[in-house]
Amino acid sequence: xxxxxxxxxxxxxxxxxxxxxxxxxxxxxxxxxxxxxxxxxxxxxxxxxxxxxxxxxxxxxxxxxxxxxxxxxxxxxxxxxxxxxxxxxxxxxxxxxxxxxxxxxxxxxxxxxxxxxxxxxxxxxxxxxxxxxxxxxxxxxxxxxxxxxxxxxxxxxxxxxxxxxxxxxxxxxxxxxxxxxxxxxxxxxxxxxxxxxxxxxxxxxxxxxxxxxxxxxxxxxxxxxxxxxxxxxxxxxxxxxxxxxxxxxxxxxxxxxxxxxxxxxxxxxxxxxxxx
Amino acid sequence: xxxxxxxxxxxxxxxxxxxxxxxxxxxxxxxxxxxxxxxxxxxxxxxxxxxxxxxxxxxxxxxxxxxxxxxxxxxxxxxxxxxxxxxxxxxxxxxxxxxxxxxxxxxxxxxxxxxxxxxxxxxxxxxxxxxxxxxxxxxxxxxxxxxxxxxxxxxxxxxxxxxxxxxxxxxxxxxxxxxxxxxxxxxxxxxxxxxxxxxxxxxxxxxxxxxxxxxxxxxxxxxxxxxxxxxxxxxxxxxxxxxxxxxxxxxxxxxxxxxxxxxxxxxxxxxxxxxx
Lengths: 276, 276
Known about the structure:
Two copies of one chain form a homodimer.
Chain A: E1 3-10, E2 13-27, E3 32-38, E4 42-47, E5 50-54, H1 58-72, E6 78-83, H2 88-93, E7 101-106, H3 109-118, H4 120-123, E8 131-135, H5 138-143, E9 149-155, H6 169-178, E10 179-190, H7 196-207, E11 212-218, E12 228-234, H8 255-260, H9 266-272
Parallel strand pairs in A: 6-7, 6-9, 7-8, 9-10
Antiparallel strand pairs in A: 1-2, 2-3, 3-4, 4-5, 10-12, 11-12
């Protein structure tokens, strides 16, 4: 039997990955959750049919969503991570010795349970004593916080299904209020080549509440139509995006790659209608 | 009727693009040649079932294969381009006012004819008076040249079929001989994430004849498993890969993106077993 996982990148582009085994399939209150063993990328977490992470290249996404904001911030002691049920982002956040507390807010407990069982390389740090876990809606959680965090990392799925409310102007306003005055936020945003409208709308919505908004990019093999975009926002105007600290033993992030990630090719500036 | 072009990225990953129309299909002496209209990427040139270029993002590949070597070279007057039957690389090479002559060597005349008809945006500069066209085997052509060129650009298909001999130690030795003492060569090499062995072998083979070999990268949406690699080689030891000149009105290449393209993430250094 040949098994192929078909992923719809756009209405007109599909990616198919050969699957050796389906290890888990279930339906939570929020979404369909699956774990598959793929021949090319190793084990993959699939939510509502969309590949979230793969063992072979997960480190690129997780290093870039965590280390870019946290090395720009002068002293990130208290970090809020929304989503990130697989644990990969938490693992990277905890590599910063400055970090004293990570509030991890994930709406779907099944994603955490499945990740603990099938992705110990990612979820292994979820029990670290610095991590405070909240199984709840990130939108509601953020509304109730004021000047509480140095950094907020939005590591959600795409804005369809449970994550939709995390991509709104109202939510970004609440996130700005939940940050301390020099707080930084980062949002995973997707491939601009396929989703220019989405990325423009995230950028514009964040601009309403933050004086500095910047895009940065990474090349992630499992996510098609590279590069993949992140949106960084700072409550204090930010002149310099250079990292303030080094980190050892990483596989993608370096201080040079961090700086280069903020370069926006002219065609993307035009496509996204940004100056930055 | 739904038409999908299926491309085999590896034995375990396929990409499918929705096709509105097949505009041309033929078989030359060397390969199957097709032109299709795709919904997502516009018109695409397909050789032996592999997408070579698409109207929507061809400029990324063509700018990066041409402008990186030509802006590093102090004065590129005579340039040899091998392959490049669609004309996109020639169009970019001719943007350098220093360039007085382009020798264009393509083995398959059908690719040029089809590109003239279906890709005027790419092939439009093939009739420029600075271009000297040779329909012949690049391997044989290069063997007969000595200290003739400032730059050689190998814009071939992948090393299966007609381009196979362009990826050998013997060919790179001949290419070194065909270059002037400060000559520079660039080779399109593919995605390292899928083809690490191929890129290692190109790198090692080139090292035999050139004192400086460097990898550089670009994110090209139609080529999966980003980033995509190019190998640059210099006959004179090269300390600095910075561009010596600016170029206006490009859509991907900028002096900053040029420099950043040479950054190799730690995992790729390890995967490719290179220090650079």
